[in-house]
Amino acid sequence: MNYVKVEGVWVEAVASSGAPGQEVAAVTTAAAPITADSWAVDTTAGPAASVPAPASIENIDITNAAQAANLDALIRGVDEALEDLISATSALGSISMRIGMQEEFVSKLTDSIDSGIGRLVDADMNEESTRLKALQTQQQLAIQSLSIANTNSENILQLFRQ
């Protein structure tokens, strides 16, 4: 079964009375369903030209749309497609903005982590430098005390030799 949306209401599209090749939208059923490429809505009492329903906005052809009602239907279709496009563009812009915000956040977080690591490395280097200076001072004190001890023992030995 094929359905056509007419002024916001979906109706079943069936083959009905009219000129050969002309289909109208109705709520009744018929033996021969309408094919997807030959839908039309007859809005007048007289016979109307058949306007194929486009599969997309790219396929709209107004050369066969002789009546104002058919042109109005095509214009409504284009307007709906534009509204859908605007909605999709808005959603895409919103998503793009959120991605940009996430990129900025990640960039700032990375900078913060790099800065923190740098500070930790600096602190570790300062601590190691302080330990090295303490060990060097300890070594110098040990050498001086040994030197003093050696000097004192030599002085004592000289006293006994005399």
UniProtKB/TrEMBL annotation:
GO molecular function: structural molecule activity
Gene Ontology CC: bacterial-type flagellum
Pfam families in the cross-refs: Flagellin_C
InterPro entries attached to this UniProt entry: Flagellin, Flagellin_C
Location of this chain's protein in the cell: Bacterial flagellum
Domain Flagellin C-terminal: 76-160
Lineage of producing organism: Bacteria, Pseudomonadati, Pseudomonadota, Alphaproteobacteria, Hyphomicrobiales
Signal peptide positions on this chain: none
Full protein name: Flagellin D
Main location: other
